[in-house]
Automatic annotation (TrEMBL), chains A, B:
Gene3D superfamilies: alpha/beta hydrolase. The keyword Cytoplasm does not apply. Keywords: Hydrolase. Belongs to the AB hydrolase superfamily. It comes from the Bacteria. PANTHER family: DIENELACTONE HYDROLASE DOMAIN-CONTAINING PROTEIN-RELATED (PTHR22946), POLYKETIDE TRANSFERASE AF380 (PTHR22946:SF9). GO terms for molecular function: hydrolase activity. This is Alpha/beta hydrolase.
Amino acid sequence: MRFISQTSSDGVTEQLFTLPATSGDIPGVLWTPDGATGTRPLILVGHGGGQHKQAPGVVAQAHRLVTECGFAVAAVDAPAHGGRPRSTEHDRLIGEMRGRMQAGGDVAPVLAELHALIAGQSVPEWRAVVTALQELDHVGAGPVGYRGLSLGCALGVPFVAAEPRVRAAVLGLHGAETSAEAAARITVPVEFLVQWDDELVPRATSLALFEALGSTEKTLHANPGRHGAVPEFELDSAVRFFTRHLS
Amino acid sequence: MRFISQTSSDGVTEQLFTLPATSGDIPGVLWTPDGATGTRPLILVGHGGGQHKQAPGVVAQAHRLVTECGFAVAAVDAPAHGGRPRSTEHDRLIGEMRGRMQAGGDVAPVLAELHALIAGQSVPEWRAVVTALQELDHVGAGPVGYRGLSLGCALGVPFVAAEPRVRAAVLGLHGAETSAEAAARITVPVEFLVQWDDELVPRATSLALFEALGSTEKTLHANPGRHGAVPEFELDSAVRFFTRHLS
């Protein structure tokens, strides 16, 4: 793991890093309280489709979790996102998806193929990132949480299912089509977000993914509105959820 | 309004009262912080079927809201519940319902008839209780909240729809069959609870009642488990919800 830069604002230290991987260098960012030393819970934030590790929503979550809870928070660019190269296969699927969206066609099968391609790469990447971050003195081997919606859920479900260091997850804005099988292997507490009028994810497939989760403790939070209109109070809820399960 | 007794425990003053009504005396209870003076938010708690104004779950909610938020909390016995007389019509419908439950028959139409009968009485009663309580110096004319699940939701939906002094409500464990029309007239923020494996309320009718609510801000909270197994953290959530909307 190589650190590239370190800055601080509002009591939050932000460190950009890259971690070498067989799939290419992973660009990431770590947020911790200024002057932090010692072990603390680590929250991983999976960004949405077309976004990146420092999208405004990701940074806002990180600042809340660092300043209110004293946690460490990390995000990485998903494969084919942010500063990362796209393979011809990525390009083909993204082009196909955009074409179908413009033509009003059925995007679901292409999106499923794209998610499967990216997840095959991102799951081992996230696991390597956790290992590397937990070797740092100001992160340490504390409990891990994951929050990811939309693409962050599509990639998060197989990751949380595969990674026993993750003890609690906030997921949602994604359906069961490609994720039900991995969801059934998740056993940690989950808060699962649904937008009741989601124009991208049919309500029935959202509810089916919640249903598929193997967790004994899981709570569905549904709010009116479209895909991008998750109310701000759901971030408050996530902060409390992680505090309850990881502190 | 006539006060019958006053006791105190853990910083919470409990006053039993009766309020005369055309439907007979309404037995109620008011909880406030010890030594409280001045106006504060008032939360009304509607108990479940077969329960009463001082059922353990009602008292536990009251103590949380009084000690953590400084609110006033009140509960009354619903018609045909607690210390209140049953009419021959109540007896007929309750007997019919029990008979169908034992025989494994369709309880829904009888339950709907019973709820309609009780709500016709309880809505004006709750409104009179609010008026009387808000004349007290240690309650005053502050914002009002309502929390009621199961029977407390069946009676709460028409009450919240009819009563503009109610500014926020926590409802749930009840379906759309008899409540959808009144629910559409509710416009205040609602937190709506669903038990995913509810053996008494079909999931689809629960979701339909959430859908029917006219509120712009409404959040569905669904948890696994049967009708009576609402997780304790949903009371935490209700405390925060009322704090957010009424403080």
